Amino acid sequence: MAHRIAVIAGDGIGTEVMPEGLRALEAAAKRFDIALEFTTFEFGNCDYYLEHGKMMPDDWFEQLKDFDALFYGAVGWPDKVPDHISLWGSLLQFRRQFDQYINLRPCKLMPGIKSPLAGREPGDIDFYVVRENTEGEYSSIGGKMFEGTEREIVIQETVMSRTGVDRVLKYAFDLAQTRPRKKLTSATKSNGISITMPYWDERVLEMAKQYPEINVDKFHIDILTANFVLHPDWFDVVVGSNLFGDILSDLGPACTGTIGIAPSANINPEGKFPSLFEPVHGSAPDIAGKGIANPIGQIWSGAMMLEHLGYKEASDAMVAAIENVLSEGDQNVLTGDIGGKGTTKTLGEAIADAI
Amino acid sequence: MAHRIAVIAGDGIGTEVMPEGLRALEAAAKRFDIALEFTTFEFGNCDYYLEHGKMMPDDWFEQLKDFDALFYGAVGWPDKVPDHISLWGSLLQFRRQFDQYINLRPCKLMPGIKSPLAGREPGDIDFYVVRENTEGEYSSIGGKMFEGTEREIVIQETVMSRTGVDRVLKYAFDLAQTRPRKKLTSATKSNGISITMPYWDERVLEMAKQYPEINVDKFHIDILTANFVLHPDWFDVVVGSNLFGDILSDLGPACTGTIGIAPSANINPEGKFPSLFEPVHGSAPDIAGKGIANPIGQIWSGAMMLEHLGYKEASDAMVAAIENVLSEGDQNVLTGDIGGKGTTKTLGEAIADAI
Ligand SMILES: CC(C)[C@H](C(=O)O)[C@@H](O)C(=O)O
Ligand SMILES: CC(C)[C@H](C(=O)O)[C@@H](O)C(=O)O
C-alpha cells in the first residue's frame, strides 16, 4: 500500500522549492521502489487567508489526520497577513494539534559549503538540535490591560509541563545514545528566568539518572549561542525549549553556511498523528518569485520524511546525492546563496539525477 | 568633589579582574585629573551567602543608593549557590531596584583580535546592543502546580509595560540618531510569541514615527542570531527585550572574538539611582583562581563608567589604550583567550601604562 503524503507548499519560496522536493522524492521512490502517493492542498497560505479570512478550512484536522506524513514548504507573507496570524493559523496548529512534540534539526557542515566560521571544515560541525515543539514560550495564554493608556501592560505565559519536558528530554537522550560521542547539551537560562528554567534543569538532572552513559552538560542560552560560534565542535545533541530550540536551530545552520539547506522534522513519535517535514528557512518574501531559492532544505526534509517512514537507505541516498552535487560544486548548478549562478530548478534537477 | 564609586568584585574571576579595572581607572583619573573615591563592599558574592544566608545585607539599598556609580565584577558560583538565587539576590536586584532600565553593550571587533568569523577585520563589526533591563522575560511572577506528580506544571509570566518598552526604544532611537549610519534593528519573535512580541513590534512602529531619519528594520530572533554570524556588518544599533538583548549581547561579542573583552553599562538614564558597570562575562568558575582571566571587559566597563560620569575624553583614552595594547600583540602581555601567554596582571598593567 502506498504511503499517503499531504503536500502543502505555503507561501513565497515555499511554492518554488516544493516541486524540487517532490522531484527528489520521486527519484528516490523510483530507485528504491517505494510507493508514495502525494495529495496537494491549496490551503495553509496567505492567499487562502485573504480569500477565506482564515488560513485553513474548519475541517483541516479531519482532512489531514489520516495521512502518513505532511510535506510542508514555508508559510508567511507579512505584507498580506501578520505573521502571528498566518503562523498560528497553520504551522503552529499542526505542531500542536498533531502533537508533533519533537522538532528535530540536523546541523551539519556539508562538503562544498563555506562556513562563515574561520577554518571550519566538513566533519567539524555535526550535531542535532532537538526542540520542544508544543509548549514553553509559544503559549497562547496572556493578554493586555489598560489598553491604549500610559499604564498599558501585556502579559504572556510560558508554560512547561512535566509531560512536555520529560518527553522531549527522553527523545534527546535516546538520540544521544545512538551517537558515537554520546553527548547531550541542555540549553537553559535558569540564572535569569527563575521559575520555568530551573524546572527544566531539574528535569534534565532527573532524566540523566536513567542514562548514566551519556555525558550531559548545560549552558545558559546567551553563552550557548556564543559557543555555537566559538566552539561548534563541542556539540553532539543539543536540547532546548521551544524558543531556545528555535534560536539554536537557525544559528546552528547559519554556522554551517546557510539556512537555505537546513531541514527539519516535526515528529509525533508515537505515530498517532502525521509528522511534518519542512525546511528551516521561511517563505523569504525578499527573494520569492525569482526562482533562485535553494531547494536543498526542502529536499533534505524529504529525506528525513523517508527515514521516518522506515526507508533509511533511501533517505541516506538522498543525503548522499545532496553531498555529491555540493562536492562537485558546479557553478551553473548551485544557487547564489552557496556561491553558484544556477536556479532552484538546476539544483533540484541535479540532485534528482544524482539520486 | 570626588565621584563616589561603590566597588563589588563578586565571585570567581570577578575578584581577579577587578583590581585591573581599578588600576586602569586610577591611571585615567590621574592623567585627566578626575577625583574618584572607591569604596569596596564585601557582599554580593556567594561566600557572603554561605555565611549569611543571603547575598546582601537587608540595608544594601540604603548603603549603595547615594553612590555615583557601582563598579561590578561578576557574580555566581553554582557549586555554592544556585545561579537563580545568587543572581536574583544581587545583580538583578540592582538592575531592578535602581531602575537601570538600559543595558548598553558595544560589540566592536578590536585590532589584534581574531574574529571567529572568516574574513572579518576591525571596522567590519561595530554596533551596540541596547537591552531592556528590568522587565520582559525576567519576571518573578509564576509558580508550580501539582508539584511532584505527573501533572506537574510550571508557569512564568513575561511582562511588558508601555513605560518599560517605550523608554528603552526611545534610548535606542536616540543612540541611533548619534551614529553615522542611523540604523536601528529591532529583535522580535512576533510570529511565534503571539502576545508580548506583537506588542513590542507595535511600539517600535509607533516610536519610529518620531524618528523619520532613522532606518528601522526588524528580524525574528532566530534569523537575527543567524544574521549576526552571516552579516555582522548589517548592524548599527540593535534593540531587544531583556532575554533577546541578553542573547545578542553574548553572541555579538563572540563574533568579535571573545566574551572576555566585552563591557556593559546598566544605566538609569535619569540619574535618580546609581548606574552599574560590569563586564559581560560571568564569574567563570572553570578558570577562576589561575590569574589568567582577561581583564579587558572590566577595564572597558570602567571606561563606560567614566563616559557616564561626564569624562568622554578620559573614557576614549582608556579605550584607545586597550586598542594600542591589543595592536602591539605582545605574547607575554596578552591573556590566553586572545592568543597570548600573559596573565590578568600583565595585561592589566600594560593597559594602565598605556593610559
Ligand atoms: C547572570 C545573568 C542573570 C545575566 C543576565 O542574564 O542578565 C548575565 O547573563 C548578563 O548578561 O548580565
Ligand atoms: C515561523 C515560526 C513561527 C517558526 C517557529 O518559530 O517555530 C519558525 O521560525 C521555525 O523555526 O519553524
Topology:
Two copies of one chain form a homodimer.
Chain A: E1 3-10, H1 14-32, E2 36-40, H2 46-52, H3 60-64, E3 69-74, H4 83-88, H5 91-97, E4 102-108, E5 126-132, E6 142-145, E7 153-161, H6 162-177, E8 183-188, H7 196-208, E9 215-220, H8 221-230, E10 237-240, H9 242-255, E11 263-267, E12 275-279, H10 296-308, H11 312-328, H12 344-354
Parallel strand pairs in A: 1-2, 1-3, 3-12, 5-10, 8-9, 8-10
Antiparallel strand pairs in A: 4-5, 4-11, 6-7, 11-12
Helix pairs in contact in A: 1-10, 1-11, 1-12, 6-7, 8-9, 10-11, 11-12
The complex binds 3-isopropylmalic acid (2 copies).
InterPro entries (chains A, B): ICDH/IPMDH, IsoCit/isopropylmalate_DH_CS, IsoPropMal-DH-like_dom, TTC_DH
Family (chains A, B): Belongs to the isocitrate and isopropylmalate dehydrogenases family.
Organism (chains A, B): Vreelandella nanhaiensis
Description:
Chains A, B: Residues 4-351 form the Isopropylmalate dehydrogenase-like domain. Chains A, B: Its cofactor is Mg(2+); Mn(2+). Chains A, B: One of its GO terms (molecular function) is D-malate dehydrogenase (decarboxylating) (NAD+) activity. Chains A, B: It catalyses: (R)-malate + NAD(+) = pyruvate + CO2 + NADH. Two copies of one chain form a homodimer. By secondary structure, chain A is α/β, with parallel strands linked by helices. Chain A has two domains: 1-108 and 259-355, Isopropylmalate Dehydrogenase, CATH 3.40.718; 126-255, Isopropylmalate Dehydrogenase (3-Layer(aba) Sandwich). In chain A, 39% of the residues lie in helices and 20% in strands. The first copy, chain A, contains twelve helices and twelve strands. Chain A has helices spanning 14-32, 46-52, 60-64, 83-88, 91-97, 162-177, 196-208, 221-230, 242-255, 296-308, 312-328, 344-354, and strands spanning 3-10, 36-40, 69-74, 102-108, 126-132, 142-145, 153-161, 183-188, 215-220, 237-240, 263-267, 275-279. In chain A, α1 (14-32) packs across α11 (312-328), α6 packs across α7 (196-208) and α8 runs parallel beside α9. The mean pLDDT of chain A is 97. Chains A and B meet through α4, β6, β7, α7 and α8 of A and α4, β6, β7, α7 and α8 of B. One 3-isopropylmalic acid sits between chains A (191-192, 222) and B (87, 246, 282).
